[in-house]
Amino acid sequence: MSALLEVSKLNKHFGGLHAVKNVSFSVQPGEIVGILGPNGAGKTTLYNLLTGFIAPDPGAAVVFEGRSLLGEAPHRIARRGISRTFQLCRPFIGMSVLENVIVGALGAKRGQGADLDAHALALLERVGLNGKADVPVEVLSYGDQRRLEIARALAARPALLLLDEPFAGLGSGEIEDLSTLIRQVHADEGLTVLLIEHKLREFMRLVDRVIALDFGEIIAQGTPEEIVRHPAVIEAYIGRSAPAEGDEHAA
Ligand SMILES: Nc1ncnc2c1ncn2[C@@H]1O[C@H](COP(=O)(O)OP(=O)(O)OP(=O)(O)O)[C@@H](O)[C@H]1O
Ligand SMILES: [Mg+2]
Asked: What is the DSSP-derived secondary structure letter of residue 139?
């Protein structure tokens, strides 16, 4: 099977800081891959590179469905089938919940046209926001904002969904619900998912495979079972003041 996403020799310097260092990996269609690493490891920067928000240093290759993504603007990458959520929710203020999801669908490569409203409403139902379609986003609770963020990302009918700490700030019941939702869209639509998350218990249950980063570099790759026993991962997490389970990381 050919990879959905193939990344090689990805580097990013911010001045003297080597935030992403020689990162190479591939993702197969239908996988749920976890990106693990302490604060500042370069996880969000990796997403920013993959989605065209920032450009990598020269020498990288990023190939999605057999074609390079390098040099493409974020909206073009979204149209190619990659959606993301943000570590901090970014709803469009001044619009309703439904309008926020519809905006997410604009520019999708599939599913434009008259079914836009119906599709957006179906997504709201799916994430448990069906009663709140006409509510202004400003009044949503934090948990509901996180659900909306996922509905908005799914509205573009992506092939690859990048989630950046979707459980941050949520209670355990809400985390369970959101995990179930991620599993369902993965199963129903064959969606491929990359997941960054510090809530390790749920993270390890959800992912097929983990890529562990530290100081911008891949220090380990493997199944959740392999990763929790991996000496370099233990050193990165426990050798320093590790984030506790349940830590918010609202950075
Ligand atoms: N635009 C930027 N300009 C300068 N430095 C940046 C920029 N974005 C990120 N960095 C730095 O790059 C490093 C990696 O940051 P990044 O946000 O990718 O970490 P992270 O793994 O997502 O951490 P967290 O778990 O806290 O979200 C950090 O040292 C950060 O301060
Ligand atoms: Mg981050």
From this structure: G
Provide the CA 232 distance to its chain's centre, in angstroms. 24
Residue spans of the domains in the chain: they are 1-81+161-251, 91-157
Assigned token pair, 132 = 């709140």
Distance from C-alpha of 135 to C-alpha of 38, rounded to nearest angstrom: 37
Place of tokens 């996922």: 150
**Token digits for 250?**
């609202």
- Ligand 2 centre and the CA of 2: distance in Å? 29
**Would you say the CB of residue 48 lies under 6 angstroms from ligand 1?**
no
When pLDDT is cut at 50, 70 and 90, the band that residue 97 belongs to is very high
Residue with tokens 């990598």: 56
Length of the chain: 251
80 CA → ligand 1 middle, Å? 26
Q: CB of 4 within 8 A of CB of 27?
A: yes
pLDDT tens string 113-149:
667 888 899 999 988 898 999 999 999 998 899 999 9
The architecture of the domain spanning 1-81+161-251 is 3-Layer(aba) Sandwich (3.40)
pLDDT at 241 over 60: no
Q: Closest Cα to atom 3, ligand 1: which residue?
A: 14
Ligand 1 centroid, distance to 216 Cα (angstroms): 9
- Beta strand ranges found along the chain (DSSP E): 5-14, 17-27, 32-36, 61-64, 67-68, 82-84, 160-164, 192-196, 209-214, 217-222
What are residue 35's DSSP bridge partners?
196, 211
Neighbours of 185 (CB within 10 A): 20
CB distance 45 to ligand 1 below 6 Å: yes
> The whole model's pTM is what?
0.91
